Amino acid sequence: MFDRVLVPLDESALAEQALPHAVAVARLTGALVTLVRVLEPPTSAGVEQPTDPVEWQLALDGAHSYLARVQRSLADVGVIAAVEVVEGEPATSILQHMHDTNTDLLALTTHGRGGMLGHSLGSVASKVLLRTRINVLLVRSLHAARGVILALPQLPSYATVLVPLDGSLRAEAAVSVAVRLCDNTAAVLLVPHVIEDGKPIGRKIPDDVELGIRSTYRQARCDAAQAYLASLTKELGNGTRSVDVNVVSDEDTLTAIDRLTSERAIDLTVMTAHGETGSSRWPYGSVALHTIVYGGTTLLVIQDRDRQELQQIRTERAARERQGHG
Fold it and tell me: Which of 251, 233, 253, 230 is closest to 243 using CA atoms?
């Protein structure tokens, strides 16, 4: 499932909230965990400033000591971790490290030492998430801000895991991962298929006729969804696994997921980066991207496309273009 897990740390309690979740996944899959600490040279107005050699060496020693302590805490719960101290701009350094080490799961929190300033994502998390092309385990710092602190050796206890499906094989790529996590924690696997309310037909016909057409279309979609989930239930059921599948009707998929998250007290959401459309133009589809930015649960996004298939975003292409001549 996952072979190499990267956990960026900045020596803050918020960033460390990713550790118990990363350990839970690593112990399940036997993945190699790497802890990385990025030290950023001092800057002023965006310009790198001279660094006192002694102060910089002290910072390096402190970073190594910190990672060694965290490394020991992981060893105490049965996970052998590598450590790495990197110098540079945090987001760029993390992305480069993932590329160089062929990381296939990034585990991080929404915020780090900068704290929560009313933004759903901190600056480093935002930059990394919007450019990464791999699986992502995102832990919400808002839980720690509300006093729900998870620290090793304590591991997360997922009571209900949400896997929203749209009927596509691409979306189903998240199911196998969620099933293994549920089997390991005896969690309930909640699998909704959202049927969005029909949109107006767009041409002038009597209201009662339009209502009838939309109602018939919606019922046909519900029947198809019920049949799809019934076949999926047979595949998922093993006699001991608790699976809850249902067709959900709402104004749109995003609203339905948000409502289910609150009503069912979801602990973990697992979804693929793309759904039925599966566009390679962006690292995430609209539902995954919205959930990353505005969701309220711990989130595991399974990248359903090979990183080589995904196109570079415009800013990445622009940064690689030659800036003039001469």
Answer: 233
Whether 101 and 228 map to the same domain: the answer is no
Asked if 187 contacts 179 with a C-beta cutoff of 8 angstroms, the reply is: no
Give the span between the Cα atoms of 89 and 124, in whole angstroms: 9
Note the pLDDT tens digit of each residue in 138-166: 999 887 666 778 888 899 989 999 999 98
Judgement on whether residues 318 and 193 belong to the same structural domain of the protein: yes
- For residue 323, the model assigns a pLDDT of 54
d(CA 318, CA 186): 48
* Other Cβ atoms closer than 10 A to 42: 12
Same domain, 144 and 162: no
High-pLDDT (> 70) share of the chain, %:
85
Q: Which domain range does residue 262 map to?
A: 158-326
Largest CA distance in the chain: 80
CB 116 within 8 A of CB 17: no
Question: CA 175 to CA 105: how far, in whole Å?
Answer: 17
User: How much is the pTM?
Assistant: 0.88
Inform me whether the pLDDT recorded for 321 exceeds 70: no
Where are the strands (E) in the chain, listed by range?
A: 4-9, 32-39, 43-44, 47-48, 81-87, 105-109, 135-139, 160-162, 188-196, 243-250, 268-272, 298-302
Residue 7 CA to its chain's centroid (Å): 13
| Nearest-angstrom CA–CA distance, 158 and 269 | 10
The CATH number for 81's domain is 3.40.50.620
